[in-house]
Amino acid sequence: MCQLLGMNCNVPTDICFSFTGFQARGGLTDIHQDGWGIAFFEGRGCRVFLDPRPSTDSPVAELVRSYAIRSLNVIAHIRKATHGDINLENTHPFMRELWGQYWLFAHNGDLKDYAPTPGKRFRPVGSTDSERAFCQILNTLALRYPDGPPPVAELHESLRALAAEIGGFGEFNFLLSNGEVLFAHCASRLSYIIRQAPFAEAHLTDQDVTIDFNQVTTPRDRVAVIATTPLTDNERWETIAPGTLLTFRDGAPVEMQNCATRPFFRPTSCPSP
Amino acid sequence: MCQLLGMNCNVPTDICFSFTGFQARGGLTDIHQDGWGIAFFEGRGCRVFLDPRPSTDSPVAELVRSYAIRSLNVIAHIRKATHGDINLENTHPFMRELWGQYWLFAHNGDLKDYAPTPGKRFRPVGSTDSERAFCQILNTLALRYPDGPPPVAELHESLRALAAEIGGFGEFNFLLSNGEVLFAHCASRLSYIIRQAPFAEAHLTDQDVTIDFNQVTTPRDRVAVIATTPLTDNERWETIAPGTLLTFRDGAPVEMQNCATRPFFRPTSCPSP
């Protein structure tokens, strides 16, 4: 199994604090030694740092930890290989372009005997179940919406159905982002926290590091951090219920409960809760 | 205008020496200050480092220069913006997946009023003429060869024709690689050198740095380095003739002169020169 970390914000924010704790799980406080990766959206562009080495022993991870890249959407992953060799092409997050947007994807879990009919358009480069699932998602979306992305509630519903379908093959926790929104699917284990004013101190679980968010924020900042398990031990994290897809935008989940059961629902006609 | 650097080898080789000289052109010995990028194939996977800051003032460039990533195919670019803002999505090299392979592309030159009909599949994320040209190349190849790559001589000929067509809009020097071969198209300025036994010393043009390749090679190594202008001042670089596409494999250009005039020629039936 692997570990996921995601961040979605309303102002560009660095992930140095959370990454410090997360990085420790790649060989120091946990066993996820089979590579790691982190990807940052900056505007429409993307920086992807991948390393098949353990994150605790990676010069690239040191750079990421010390070089404060500010981003609205970040996806990180540390790997405990279940399918596919330990090499660069099997290292998450994976990236593709669809509709003139980059899409990033990272997966935690294990899909058994998952061999979908290969799509014509997006094909895996490596040999993981995860990249196969990512390509399957994108091939389905590209066929269904050939001209461009649908409204976010419709995309949410399509992804929810796809997640349930692929989740029939095993554990399918994932993070997916196009730089505007971040989708988080919980199959078994995924938590999140929203940090906003009034800000407080936070202390990492995996390292003895404390930060006072009052010192590094403005009152309007809002940041959602999503992780396989909580990264801090003095804050209240929300556990996402298995079988749930959340869509984060501007640092909080978009309310779509009332829309979720209607296929291809447009947000403009969604009744208020 | 921009500067290109490419490397194609028969054994995984680090690019630290060449990159040291190249990096200096991003603001120190030359004016290309509008960002830089470098991408390394490792197996089927790719590491792409991008930075919209000048390469002489980039912590990411420092990491690349000091962390010896060994690769068979490398493409690097430093930018002097002509089309498109200075931001991450306009920073070369660009990457896409086609046929289950990653493709990397970087361009030097200036395409005037280049606005091809947008393809259905590969779309630019940023606003450069370069990314439009890359997407046009991939859309054409994907339509022409939907199931997978053709033999390399056929691909060479298709790319040669595409380069001539797009080159009608302006200067179109580019490097393109799928990790197996590296295509280098010279429209105006591009040189290369093949380093193989007997190896000698080399001295950079842009920095006072010397390397003795005898100390870091084995007799079977062969490395082709391709650059906008020669990176060393004591070696003989070959100037590529404008209008030429070279295909590098295993550290040397593949001989295709006798095949190049025949459309969709298969290498197996190509007569010896």
Which pair of chains has the greatest number of interface residues, and how are they split between the two chains?
A-B, 33 and 33 residues
Strand content of chain A: 25-35%
Sequence stretches where pLDDT stays below 50 over 5 or more residues of chain A = 258-273
Spatial strand arrangement across the major sheet of chain A: 3-2-4-1-12-9-13
> Kindly, what is the distance between the CA atoms of the first and last residues of chain A, rounded to a whole number of angstroms?
37 Å
Specify the biggest β-sheet of chain A: 7 strands, antiparallel
Oligomer classification: homodimer
Number of helices of chain A: 5
CATH topology tier name of chain A: Glutamine Phosphoribosylpyrophosphate, subunit 1, domain 1
CATH classification class of chain A: Alpha Beta
What is the string of SSEs of chain A from the N terminus onward? Answer: EHEEHEEEHHEEEEEEEEEH
Could you give the count of β-strands of chain A?
15
CATH architecture of chain A: 4-Layer Sandwich
CATH homologous superfamily name of chain A? Aminohydrolase, N-terminal nucleophile (Ntn) domain
Q: What's the alpha carbon Rg of chain A, rounded to whole Å?
A: 18 Å
User: Given the helix and strand composition of chain A, which structural class is it?
Assistant: alpha+beta
Protein name (chains A, B): Class II glutamine amidotransferase
Keywords (chains A, B): Glutamine amidotransferase
Domain Glutamine amidotransferase type-2 (chains A, B): 2-251
Pfam families (chains A, B): GATase_4
